[in-house]
Amino acid sequence: MKLFHAGNSPYARRPRIVAREAGLMDRIEEIDAAPLGGSDNVVFKHGPGGKVPGLLTDNGAYLCESLIICRYLNDMAGGSLLPTEPKARDEALHVDGIASLLMDSLFVRSHEIRREEGEKSPGVIATEAARAARAYDELESLAGGFGDEPNLGTITVVASLGYADWRHPGDEWRKGRPLLTGWFEKMMQRPAMEETKPIF
Ligand SMILES: N[C@@H](CCC(=O)N[C@@H](CS)C(=O)NCC(=O)O)C(=O)O
Q: Are both 72 and 95 inside the same structural domain?
């Protein structure tokens, strides 16, 4: 399998962590597709999106969208990153949803902030900042149940908070959120998280 990623992409970090935690790295070649955007980028050879992550499977199918790729990799590895017990599974998916919407919100705001003056929307920036604050609070309320072993949901939490540290340090997501902070610091000691963290 070939996994296309780029730089500090939080979306690409998700399956990169999953591949490591699921023990799949001996079956995956990681390809850095940076810089993104140009119409001659390698990712356009495989589909219309031109985004990372992308996964070229051993059957020749090209999968896009981080959520789909993570689910696929987890299935390849026998499903070890999603609990089988129904309540725990629902909780992991609940966390994955909150962390995914946080990632989308942080990403949108980061792009909005970097637009030219006159093209920026203060309304969008404020709306997304408020959404992210609510998501951080929700994750703090859930963090006591995250545990020491990552799953698909908590992997998305790590990728989103790592992106917040890079693009939105002013959010100070740790402030007043001790459970989330302590859990995140523990997660960052795992090689899968350390090897894929944003560099800035
Ligand atoms: N919904 C997509 C989002 C992927 C995405 O937006 N990736 C960014 C990098 S973080 C990208 O490839 N941007 C290149 C572009 O927009 O041309 C997913 O979950 O995979």
A: no
